[in-house]
Specification:
The chain has nine helices and two strands; from the N terminus they run ααααββααααα. By secondary structure, the protein is mainly α. It has one domain.
């Protein structure tokens, strides 16, 4: 994936991502971020949403469309995506939010953070025994992440971004009180 991105072959990077999922293999390390980066470079926030939501939604409720590498949707591809919130850490969340801000999809940000929170709680309950107790610490929002989101939204020219900051901070204060920047 890294080589494809370096060569600016973003459709190839997404095909590699899809192939890992079809093989039911977890992509290594920063692969989720690379897939989102490829979506951003192709100006395809819809595919970024499919990836983000596909990893955070149980398979029976997952969206049934995905990228086929040719720029169109294919119904059978995302069905192989498994519920894997462990692949969506803070860095993936912030990248997803940055893509949504860049492409003016502000209305998707709070629902995405809510979905991320719900998925992390579900993973904590289901997978804590398998992954170890550090999982509770690894999937919490930090002050730098929240500060970065606020910075991204403040830089947005849309007036609704200010309202979104207030809405997001209210949600974060309720669910992640330690992550509120001073």
């Amino acid at each position: 994936m890294r080589l494809a991105i370096e060569r600016q072959e973003f459709d190839t990077a997404l095909r590699v991502w899809k192939n890992w999922l079809r093989l039911k293999a977890l992509p290594p390390g920063k692969a989720t971020e690379m897939a989102l980066f490829a979506c951003d470079q192709m100006s395809r926030p819809d595919i970024a949403q499919e990836i983000f939501h596909g990893l955070l939604t149980r398979p029976n409720a997952a969206d049934s469309s995905n990228f086929d590498g040719e720029g169109s949707s294919k119904a059978s591809d995302i069905e192989s995506m498994t519920f894997c919130p462990g692949m969506v850490d803070e860095s993936v969340l912030i990248m997803y939010i940055a893509i949504m801000v860049k492409h003016n999809h502000l209305d998707t940000i709070v629902p995405a953070v809510e979905l991320w929170t719900t998925a992390m709680q579900a993973m904590d309950q289901d997978d804590l025994v398998f992954m170890g107790s550090d999982i509770h610490i690894a999937h919490r929002l930090s002050v730098p992440t929240v500060a970065k989101v606020i910075e991204l939204l403040r830089g947005h020219k849309d007036a609704s971004a200010t309202k979104l900051i207030a809405e997001l901070l209210t949600y974060i204060e309720k669910h992640f009180p330690d992550a509120i920047p001073v």
